[in-house]
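forwarding from the other thread:

> can someone predict this with 2P0?

sure thing
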Amino acid sequence: MQATVRASPNIALIKYWGKRDEKYNLPAVSSISITLDEIWTETKINFSPNYKRDILTINNVQQDDTRRVSDCIDSICGEHRNFACVSSKCNFPISAGLASSSSAFSALVIAINQAVNKGYELQDLANEAGKASGSAARSMLGGFVELENKKNKIQINQLLQSEDWPLRVVIAITDSRKKAVSSSEGMKLSSKTSPFYNSWVKNQSEDIDEARKAILSQDFLRLSEISEHNCMKMHSVMWTSRPSIVYWNSATIECMHAIRELQKKGEFVFFTIDAGPQIKAVCLPESESKVVNILKEIRGVSSVLQSGLGQEPQIK
Ligand code: 2P0
């Protein structure tokens, strides 16, 4: 009745922003991501008839609110179950736009399935992870992952394995505090108030098709162009929400300009930014050291993380 699973967060190149069903947390748009390897969440779950309630610790700090985790366990095990103790450790900042919920919930659903021997299939577990956190479904696979919207569910597909195209990711941390507006709140606000929201949803499939082709043909420049464009479109939807949602700070913008300069010099790098102020620079291995050296000198960048692309979650 116990299991430990390590999973890595993923970074979307073609983004998810908006929900078509809040109850089942189904996304309004399909998305494409890369799963990382050097950063991870490790989650241990242990069910016991001796527990009086679910207990959750994150980085050794006991949490008062276990609702999201308890709902996820109920959804897989049913409500007539033993309570569980879940302890989760992360080797990177949480709730700061580094997709910590993607690694946390992908690790959790696999750990639950393993601990109670439920025998769920991958796609069912991906739907359970997605119910808890939309982006978590994509961390159920390694490498390049497409999350496809189906009728009443989602489906995840691996486009390429990490070894097929070993890109590198350099993450410039510009502020590691918890973000002011959660992704769920932000998406709700955008869908209700941004005049750009409907066209964002409508045009997403073109970006998905373009990015899929770029990935399958390993065409870095084609992937750069569509990824940056899709990222800027998502942030335009955020910026034009009422009230406006701006996750960037001045260092975020400095980093964007620095990456544009590197591109002009012929380096193979592009940026993407999620619901937070960190910049993620995706690059070919030969450009990585130049990207790191430039980003770490920018005022406001407190640290730089480096990662390759990784595998699906690992049972320990
Ligand atoms: C993404 N983000 O595709 C986009 C880009 C943030 C910006 O997926 O509400 O925290 O729990 O389903 O999983 C944020 O996702 O959102 C997110 P919920 P979640 O990576």
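The longest helix spans residues 197-216. thats all i got for now
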